[in-house]
Amino acid sequence: MNMLPFTRPTLDEEELEAVSEVLKSGWITSGPRVIELEKELASYVGGGVDVRLFNSATAALEAILIARDIGPGDEVIVPAMSFVATANVVVRTGATPVFVDVELESRNITAQAISEAITPRTRAVMPVHFAGAPVDMDPIHALAAEHDLLVFEDAAQAIGTRYKGRQIGSSGNPVAFSFHPNKNMTTIEGGAVASDDSELIKRLESIRFHGISRDESGEMGVEAWGGKMNLPDVNATIGLAQLRKLDGFNARRRKLAEHYFKRMPSHPALVLPADAPGHSWHMFCVCLDFHSLGMSREDVLDTFKAREIMLGMHYPAIHLFSLYRRLGYGPGSFPVAEQIGEQTFTLPLFPAMTIADVDRVAYVFQRLLA
Ligand SMILES: Cc1ncc(COP(=O)(O)O)c(C=O)c1O
Known about the structure:
Radius of gyration: 21 Å
Number of domains: 2
CATH topology of the largest domain: Aspartate Aminotransferase, domain 2
CATH class of the largest domain: Alpha Beta
Oligomer: single chain
Helix content: 25-40%
Bound molecules: pyridoxal-5'-phosphate
CATH architecture of the largest domain: 3-Layer(aba) Sandwich
CATH superfamily of the largest domain: Type I PLP-dependent aspartate aminotransferase-like (Major domain)
Largest sheet: 4 strands, mixed
Shape: globular
């Protein structure tokens, strides 16, 4: 039996040939392929947005915060359950992340939770579409309008996710995607921002490349700080091939997720993820109360490893890392995020998996919970 990882990118001859072509072309860093992928992504996302590529979603999120002048004295509301980058980018600007708890099944934040965390210093809120599950954005936009807050979406895990039938990213407010290898499409490392604000797009272009801007005559100017966050053409050309296959990948992910729902046992110690229309099934994460079964986390992982199945762990609650405990958070601050942090397991889910692979994973859960 082959070891079944929790994720694996799907790359084939098309990507290999595309990379080879770029390498032979003599132009390997940011150039025509980046521009092409930006156009293709903008048209995929829809809603008349523009897209700018970055070398990671972390860089993309940092650039959004800098472009919107978020800094010392400002608070940005973020979920306590996400990858740590969601909060780290806020810290990087000198602003303070303010955590809120999430819902257990969707792992997403709600307008209600956000409203309880708003203070006179709140400048922005950054919902995360966890594992590709769409956050209920309409009440969040309404709340943000009421309190004059900016909304930035961390859609690192949500390329291809739809909310009320529309692609995440098409709403106009700045949205960041990741193309890291475990995401639904990859550029190896890479990220993007979608926004309908042409001024913001101009600032992002300059922030991602040394603060450089050019006037109509092509003269170079530097008016504000910029870093080095551009994506090379070698990566962008992989993204072009991947984007053409994205809807197929996501349809396959949905099929596999639906099969998990059919095969996973129903048991009080097991919490399955919430399904939602438009979910892109980046991950299938469950909570398992292994203590109630007389087991440790290691026991569970070993049980699966013995059957050549690797499970993932997404994620430890952010507020419990020592960096964030220094802001005054600790155990008990966000009970749901902490429960997820303790009990979460990510089941294998990637397009090249078979239905039999899903059966194999579900069978181990059936045995564990019998
Ligand atoms: C929710 C979330 N935000 C941000 C990031 C950072 O993405 P990147 O690795 O492209 O910087 C990730 C990556 O896993 C993520 O899951």
